[in-house]
Structures are given as structure tokens and as C-alpha cells.
């Protein structure tokens, strides 16, 4: 006897009340490769049939008004704040990836690694913790290793972080990158 699930869940992007409206922004629609976000009305509307949950719209929103199921910024910040004090490294992994983490490295599973901005990687590194990306082989993670390369380039320019953990995590785009670079660049002098 083989049981089949009664309900299957495929995440799609959701716009919440933090959205400032189509007329004032629309960056989510620009980021969507499938044109699944309509900004012709007052608020953006996601076409659930066209959305592939690639996640490109989520980090594009400067107001953190978009999310994918199981990947809210607040959830991930809370998870990382618990993991970072004791972890030598963090692996951000697509839920479809076959991943093996180094010993002692927790895995933070996401619907897609498109959610991980360079700012996320820099925030983790600002706490003196290594970060790795584990993309799947599918289209949802195509090109995500560029975020890691960008973050590494910034770290090479700034210098290796010290492990102090004094900075609070902020994963909202673009503030995640700005806050991390600012904190990394001023950690030795305290001058902003």
C-alpha cells in the first residue's frame, strides 16, 4: 500500500502589509524573472501559477515586505542568533541540495539560496563565523555563488573579522550588507 499526500505545498512569494505600494517601489516585479508580480494596482499581486519560488524578489525588497514560506527574515535572524555563538561555520543550503556540512557546522535550510544576499554572508562573517553556500543543481539556485564571491571580495578589501559577536544580525536587504560592511570596517577603531 502506497500512500500519497493529500495536500502538497509549493511555496510562492507573498506580499505583506510592510509593502509601500506599487507606485512607490515595484522593485519586486523588476527582480522576478517569470514576471509573476503585477504592479499595475495599488499593491503588488503575486500570480501563484506563474511564481516558481525562485526567491529573487525577497531580497530585492528594501522594506522586507516579501517572503517565502519557511524563510522569513525574522525566523532566520533568530535561528542564526542561536547558532552563531557556538558554530565555527554555517552552511546555507537549498532544501533540494544534497549537502554534507563540515563537523560542527549547522545547516540553515532555505527554499532557495536566492534568498541569501551578500549581506547575510557578511553578517555571519562579522561574527567571526565562516559561511558556505550549498546550492541545488536546479534553476532555483542558478548563479547564487556570485553572492559568495561578492562577499569574499568585500572581506578581502576590509580584512578578516574578529569574533566578538557584538553586532546584532540584520538580514533585511540592503541594510544587511551596509550594516555588516560598516561594522567590519569600524570594528578596530570604533569610528564610523
Commentary on this structure:
- The structure is a single chain.
- The chain has 192 residues and is of the alpha/beta class.
- 29% of the residues lie in helices and 12% in strands.
- The strands form three sheets. It has a three-stranded parallel sheet with strand order 6-5-7. Strands 1-4 form a two-stranded antiparallel ribbon. A two-stranded antiparallel sheet has the order 2-3.
- A hairpin with a 6-residue loop joins strand 2 and strand 3.
- Helix 4 packs across helix 5 and helix 4 runs parallel beside helix 6.
- The chain is globular, with a radius of gyration of 18 Å.
- The model has no long low-confidence stretch (mean pLDDT 81).
What are the main properties of this structure?
single chain; 192 residues; alpha/beta; three-stranded parallel sheet; two-stranded antiparallel ribbon; 6 helices; 29% helix; 12% strand
